[in-house]
Structures are given as C-alpha cells and as structure tokens.
Amino acid sequence: MYKKHTNAHNGYLCFMTAIQQLAIWLKSPAKMVIIPHKNPDGDAMGSSLALNGVLQQLGHTVTVIAPNAYPTFLHWLPGHEAVVYYESTPESANELIDEADFVFTMDFNTLSRIDQMGNHIAMSKAKIVMIDHHQDPENYAHLMFSEPTIGSTCELVYNIIVELNLRKHINEEVASCLYTGILTDTGSFRFPSVTANTHKAVAVLMDCGANHSFIHEQIKDTARPDRLKLLGIALQNMIFLSDLNTAYITLSQDELDACNFQKGDAEGFVNYGLSVAGITMAVIMIEYRNEGVVKLSFRSKGDLPVNVFAKTYFGGGGHINASGGISKRSLAETVAYFVRSLKTFLS
Ligand code: 5GP
Ligand code: MN
C-alpha cells in the first residue's frame, strides 16, 4: 500500500519501524494532545482532526490544541468545535500538555513554528511524535514520521493509518479531514508533489465518504465580498520584475483595514503571479502593523528553492516551491530589502 521510497531522513524501513513503535504505543488507552503549527492551514488542521478522529475511536482521550485561530473556511471540519486555542487559554492548554502521555506535532518540524507553546512541549514528560513533510526536521521528537517527498501531511497520515491496519476507522469525518489537507497542500492536485499514490488515497477517501464537491465549495466558495475587494487591490498592486522572472504583491495594513481583513482572506493571492507567462517566482508581503511585522509568502516553479531564500533572508522556511518568512522592517523597507536579496540570491 505504502509506496516504497527513500530520502535523506527516512526510508521505507525507517517508516515501518516507526509504524511498529507507534502500534505498540497505541495499544492501551492514553491521554493525547495533537498540535498543528501556528496559523494552521488546511493540511495542519485536516491532519490533526483526522488523527484525532481515529485516536478517539481507539478509546484514547484526545485534544487538538491549535496555537492560534484558523480561517473560517476551515470551521466546518469535523471536530473543529472541540479545538482548544493556546493563544486564548494558555493555562488550561498547558495543563493538557502536562497531563499528556503523547503529543503529536502535525505539519511542522521545528518547535519555533508553535512559538511559546514549543517551550512547554520541550519540557513535557510526554512522548512526542512528529508527523510532517517539511525538509530538515529538528531533533525534538521521540518518534519521527518525516517524509519530505510526500505532498501533504494528510497523505502521510493516510499512509500511517493504512499501515497501522486502521483503515476501517476512516469514516466520513476522518476522510473529509484528510481530503481537505491533500486538496489544499497540492493546489487542488496540481503541484509536482502529487503522485499516483495521492490519487489512490483520494479514491479511498471518497469511498469512505469524503464529498469532494462539498469540500471544494467549503474551501473555495465561501468568501465574503470584502475578500474579493482585497484581491482586486492585491492584483492592482502587483509589480513585475521581468528581468528576475518575479512578480510581487504588497498589502498594507490600511488596505487590509479598508476590506475588514480577516484571517485567511489573502490565502492563495500569492499564486496569481505564477499564472503569468515567464514568471517563476511569486511573492506576497502583508503588513501587520500591530504585530510590527511583514509576513512574506513565496511560491516558485521548477527548481527555484524559495525555502532556501526564505531561510537565508527572512528567518523562515518551507518547501522548495512554497515557503514563508517574516520581516521586522517597514513594508517599504521590506520591499527594498527583498529586491536586493533576490538579486544577490539569483546571481
Ligand atoms: P504560507 O506562505 O502559505 O504561509 O506558507 C507556505 C509554506 O511555507 C508552508 O509549508 C509553511 O509551513 C512554510 N512557512 C510559512 N511561513 C513560515 C515561517 O515563518 N517559517 C517556516 N519555517 N516556514 C514557514
Ligand atoms: Mn503541509
């Protein structure tokens, strides 16, 4: 079932060894916490809530603790109503972590991706299980499922469930969560990371009850008119650096305010740059004035490693074709620094 492959961190044998260990740990009922990364996306929440659904069926006591809120287009996900937010209730969240026998960290591989929560996890007595598909994992977990060749953590969770012989526990709710993360992390099944295995997994998820049409509508067709106004501004603001095959968008706090910005509104805007012929790198820089930061998202085509660029110049990371980072400069200074850095990087 699981496609044999090898990579720098984990081979098929490593994967199966990790499966055997996890199977032993799952034998007796335990207290478990599942943690997606900060600003959780469809893959982080989908994988967390899917795992939550399976573990609960096995009789474990499970809580999903999100570092902070996530976009409303993910609020329909089965299990959403029980998610605890670390940002709003840190004390009770810390208690859950302190009492946990197992902590699963989902769709990230460095504790800095969950801010202050990371310190608490590092001190906890719990066994930590990493389930992730980013490169260069940190060494914080007792058990690692680190598979950078897989397009989404949800596909990886699917593989894990199948290899644990738990496929019968993929009910409609679990299937819908897994489908969501595969959909969002593959750009609706179009990124190079998609394999025949991805489609086979999706076929099984549909057999288990995932309603693809309903899910696409929830994710793609539930925007507020203000979001489209903001998209209009973003596209107007797009600058083409033709000699660098790059397009970038800026959004200032004032522009966000004018469109009553809500978390997730700018999701996907960055990709528009890549729809232009000849553009191989697209960027969006969004000013969050209250936090004193500009958040950057990078996308690329081919072998242009935007994760290396994000890590080198913006303290971030991610995947070869999709990454992000942060700047503490003003928006205008961030743009200037970005253009300078890109020229150096490409030369
Ligand atoms: P997005 O641009 O959608 O926020 O993120 C794209 C990818 O880059 C995701 O895989 C995400 O995990 C990664 N990423 C985004 N922001 C950061 C960051 O600040 N640090 C790191 N290490 N990765 C990031
Ligand atoms: Mn992911």
What does this molecule look like?
The chain has 347 residues and is α/β, with parallel strands linked by helices. The longest helix has 16 residues, at 42-57. It has 2 domains: 5-219, inorganic pyrophosphatase (n-terminal core) (Alpha-Beta Complex); 227-346, Diaminopimelate Epimerase, Chain A, domain 1 (Roll). It is 39% helix and 18% strand. The protein starts with 11 loop residues before the first helix and ends with a helix. It has helices at 12-25, 42-57, 90-99, 116-123, 153-163, 172-185, 196-207, 212-220, 225-236, 253-258, 306-314, 331-346; strands at 31-36, 61-66, 84-85, 102-106, 127-132, 143-146, 239-241, 246-251, 281-288, 293-300, 317-318, 322-327. Strand 9 (281-288) and strand 10 (293-300) form a beta hairpin. It has 12 helices and 12 strands. It is globular and about 60 Å long. It has a 6-stranded parallel sheet, sandwiched between helices. Strands 7-8-9-10-12-11 form a 6-stranded mixed sheet, with helices on both faces. Helix 2 runs parallel beside helix 5 (153-163), helix 6 (172-185) runs antiparallel to helix 7 and helix 6 crosses helix 8 (212-220).
